[in-house]
């Protein structure tokens, strides 16, 4: 004789907690998104402000700043400076960081553990300390702060983030793939170029985007080592006392929308590839 099936109903208290959680989580999620998006909404809104000499108070809607985004003194030049520094720092740090990541994962050498530790120091050091230390070093070498010192400083702290990002990608690769290429009479360079490098491209691209965003956004280290050279974050900081000009809000809004479009495009392309792969299987 089989035992009767007994339905185990969850306790009433557990049901109440789950119901309460279902109600609270969306509220906290909404508050978190609002906390993140309110400053962005403020930036976009005040790009349409009829500011005059000050952009601290809403004075009416206008498209003047959008029609002439370079109308404020130095705003476009500071943007060009930030783009130039970010591009150079990203290119150099991505190449060096990728090579360092490959060396740390694929090769054994004396001082490897110390190198792994030193890579994390720029990431863990406060930017104030790092900026002041770099400035002291440049001054001791009698190098005047400017474009060159900013580029060197940005390359220095971007390398660490590139190494960590690419290192995770390299560690996930199966060395047997390169061994298989070697069994097919491919040289080490050909095996790297045809097998390893294509698999590293997503990690390298992610590291390059991270390095560029960190370089473009940096203010503290740049402010210590820039001298009279002005980047976009430094321009915004100097302008904040009298109200950031609406042209700077226009550029910030455009950057946000471009980044949003890129993220959405990546998500759409990734979803399309997953659907295509699922259809083939």
Description:
Helices cover 75% and strands 0% of the residues. It is mostly helical and 281 residues long. It has two domains: 23-69 and 245-275, no CATH class; 73-173 and 203-242, MetI-like (MetI-like fold, Orthogonal Bundle), CATH 1.10.3720.
Which SSEs are present, and which pair or pack?
Blueprint: H1 12-46, H2 64-67, H3 75-106, H4 112-124, H5 127-140, H6 147-172, H7 175-183, H8 188-217, H9 220-225, H10 232-239, H11 246-280
Helix pairs in contact: 1-11, 3-6, 3-8, 3-10, 4-6, 6-8, 7-8
Rg over alpha carbons: 26 Å
Number of domains: 2
- CATH fold label of the largest domain: MetI-like fold
Distance between the termini: 46 Å
- Main sheet characteristics: none
The global form is: globular
Helix content estimate: over 70%
CATH superfamily of the largest domain: MetI-like
The CATH first-level class of the largest domain comes to Mainly Alpha
List the helices and strands in order. HHHHHHHHHHH
Determine the structural class based on helices, strands and strand pairing: mainly alpha
Low-confidence stretches: 5-9
CATH architecture of the largest domain: Orthogonal Bundle
Percentage of residues in strands: under 5%
Give the strand tally: 0
Average pLDDT rating: 85
